Amino acid sequence: TKNNGRNGYTFFQPSMNMQAQSQLQLNNDLWHALDNNELRLFYQPKYCAPRGPILGFEALLRWEHPARGLLTPDHFLPMAEKTGMIVSIGNWVINEACRQLRQWHLQGHPHWSVAVNLSSLQFEQSNLVETVTEALAKHEIPPELLTLEVTETTAMRDPDESVRILTELTKLGVKASIDDFGTGYSSLLYLKRLPASELKIDRAFVNELQHHSEDATIVSAIVALAQSLQLKVVAEGVETAEQQAFLTGLGCNTLQGYLLGKPIPPERISELDNFVGT
Ligand code: C2E
Ligand code: CA
Ligand code: CA
Ligand code: CA
To answer: Of 92, 138, 179, 244, which has the highest C-beta tally within 10 A?
Structure first.
């Protein structure tokens, strides 16, 4: 074994390729990231269509790795899912997002909401309701200002169970959002039964809006479907003024994307457009 110089040992096998080794090292590091305060939440604004006011923010996880710099979730979340570490990380995210929301309230933004992504493993934890309840109480958050985003794929894995879990969660007063909508295969019957208040159209559809007429057709259909089920529609990944105009015209309530604001650390949100007066 070879000492990794920080928190213990990494097994070193000459046969292992560089990428696998580096992945293993990252995995080791992740165990300490929480304790060492290396995890951060960035916040991406959600704007009332077409360009404001700001309705709230989606919390997006980042890892400030001491050697590798700022890492986005694609570098470490798949691994955290496999090892189960995502559960403790996810609980930290819920708590930290609630703490930040409380700060915003004290700073004069009582209507802002915060959305947190739940991994499927975290969604299936029997103590999730308890974790959310405790975070709301600890930070004195009005429950309706916390949204829990669950992907369509997660929600459809065991639809009856998802209805049960989401019913329990929404009884607390929090909102549920179906994320990455359009990429899974929802049964309309279940979609109707899910106690969600919002659908988020996946970035992939928004991306292709101008280039492929099929995507425009799909997006129009999703918006119509959401409206018939009395769900709010959020479009993510809005990058151009054309997309902004098209989505607003279709009746999307909320827009999120680089055009309006990238995910940023909380100390930078005062730089956002339409920040004042919202
Ligand atoms: P997501 O929930 O679909 O989040 C949207 C992703 O799209 C984010 O990537 C965001 O930075 C990016 N994005 C937003 N607007 C634009 C745009 O206009 N153009 C482009 N190209 N990208 C845009 P990010 O932050 O890298 O997160 C990736 C995924 O990681 C998220 O996808 C979510 O599934 C997951 N994730 C992030 N934070 C958490 C967390 O705290 N817990 C869990 N379980 N998953 C998380
Ligand atoms: Ca999301
Ligand atoms: Ca997405
Ligand atoms: Ca996603």
So the answer is: 179
Tokens of 69: 């710099």
Radius of gyration (Cα) for the chain, nearest Å? 20
This prediction's pTM: 0.92
pLDDT(275) > 90: no
φ/ψ of residue 201, rounded to 5: -75, 130
More confident residue, 10 or 253: 253
- Distance CA(87)–CA(27), nearest Å, equals 15
Q: Is 90 in the pocket of ligand 1 (CB under 6 A)?
A: yes
**CA–CA gap between residue 118 and residue 165 (Å, rounded):** 12
Nearest CA to ligand 1 atom 27: 73
Q: Which residue's alpha carbon is at the smallest distance from atom 4 of ligand 1?
A: 60
Q: How far is the CA of 277 from the centre of ligand 2 (A)?
A: 26
CA 138 remoteness from chain centre: 22
Q: Is the ipTM of this complex over 0.90?
A: yes
What is residue 7's predicted lDDT score, i.e. its pLDDT?
Answer: 52
Give residue 12's pLDDT.
Answer: 55
Amino acid at 267: E
**Residue of the nearest CA to atom 41 in ligand 1?**
61
Taking residues 169-197, report their average pLDDT: 88
Strand 232-235 and strand 254-255: the pairing is: parallel
